[in-house]
Amino acid sequence: MARRRGAPDANRVAESHPGRTGPVCGINRGGPVSRVFGVGDQVLLVDRKGRRYLVALEVEAEFHTHTGVVAHEQILGEDEGVVLRSSRGSTFTAFRPTMAEYVLKMPRGAQVIYPKDLGPLLMLADVFPGARILESGVGSGALSMTLLRAGARVTGHEIRDDFAARAIANVGTMLGVEALDRYDVQMKDVYEGISDTGYDRVVLDLPEPWLVVPHASNALLSGGIIVAYTPSIVQATRFRTALDENGFSFAETVEVLNRTWHIDGDAVRPDHRMVAHTAFLTHARLLMT
Ligand SMILES: C[S@@+](CC[C@H](N)C(=O)[O-])C[C@H]1O[C@@H](n2cnc3c(N)ncnc32)[C@H](O)[C@@H]1O
After folding, report:
1. Which of 145, 195, 205 maximizes ligand 1 atoms within 8 Å of its Cβ, making it the mutation to test the pocket?
2. Measured in angstroms, how far is the CA atom of residue 52 from the centroid of ligand 1?
3. Do 121 and 244 share a domain, yes or no?
4. What is the three-state SS of the chain?
5. Are residues 83 and 121 in the same domain?
6. Is the C-beta atom of 189 inside 6 A of ligand 1?
7. Centre of ligand 1 from the C-alpha of residue 98, in Å
């Protein structure tokens, strides 16, 4: 938790940390970002027990936990991996969060798609730089930032303006405001239709994706791909029926299971706990007859 003690003064920070050229808001924007922490950066603080805390760096702010206080000034101007000592002697290591870590810790409106499904979804949708993608709904922006970081141009259809605002804010924080040039979130009920045509991909995460299939068959280019993320198999079967009725082929429904292993020298076994089920991923291709 950050507590501010005064108004931000970016000039003062630039003087005290001369390696920086100005505030950096994005985390992993792919450009020549300074590795030195600065005002506006997201930082993951990891304690000795592996607990993770996401902090946005501010001037004269403090991070408070039950194991003491860390002043943001202790992090500003430092490199990734710096080890910090709290006011009560606890140690924290500071890193920039990966996208997977950010998705799990970022502010949420709606439930996000978890990283274990986001990676495969990129492959199943065959996302490529410059792809025109219709995404609905945008929720908290986890899927949006995944598509955008792969280089796509994303048009979102969302019915809740608070979720739309949250998604845009999370994308801007994770990828930098430049990514917002490729992100157009429209307040629109996708069950009533898709604005525009000529999309390469349609990606859906909402309760009744089968209602979108007829619109998608008009909005997609021939050869385009549709993917739906559905927690229930009944949703997946209804979606599959709609795909069959609207000119889609090569449909497949998959479930991604991730099992981690405990490895301690030669003592090895599967971890006792795993996230066994999140959702089904159903994908298909539009073939014009
Ligand atoms: C589970 S959330 C999506 C989460 C998102 N995939 C993410 O990773 O952050 C579902 C979203 O669909 C939106 N939604 C539901 N029905 C919709 C509709 N008919 N048209 C557009 N958006 C809709 C909800 O408001 C919500 O934001």
Report:
1. 205
2. 27
3. yes
4. CEEECCCCCHHHHHHHCCCCCCCCCCCCCCCCCCCCCCCCCEEEEEECCCCEEEEECCCCEEEEECCEEEEHHHCCCCCCCCEEECCCCCEEEEECCCHHHHHHHCCCCCCCCCHHHHHHHHHHCCCCCCCEEEEECCCCCHHHHHHHHCCCEEEEEECCHHHHHHHHHHHHHHHCHHHHHHEEEEECCHHHCCCCCCEEEEEECCCCHHHCHHHHHHHEEEEEEEEEEECCHHHHHHHHHHHHHCCEEEEEEEECCCCCEEEECCEEEECCCCCCCCCEEEEEEECCC
5. no
6. yes
7. 24
Whether residues 213 and 176 fall in one domain: yes
Is the beta carbon of 121 within 6 A of some atom in ligand 1? no
- Residue with CA nearest ligand 1 atom 13: 137
User: CATH number for the domain including 268?
Assistant: 3.40.50.150
User: Per residue in 133-165, pLDDT tens?
Assistant: 999 999 999 999 999 999 999 999 999 999 999
pTM above 0.85, yes or no: yes
Q: Are residues 129 and 16 in the same domain?
A: no
Domain that holds residue 24: 2-97
Same domain, 71 and 116: no
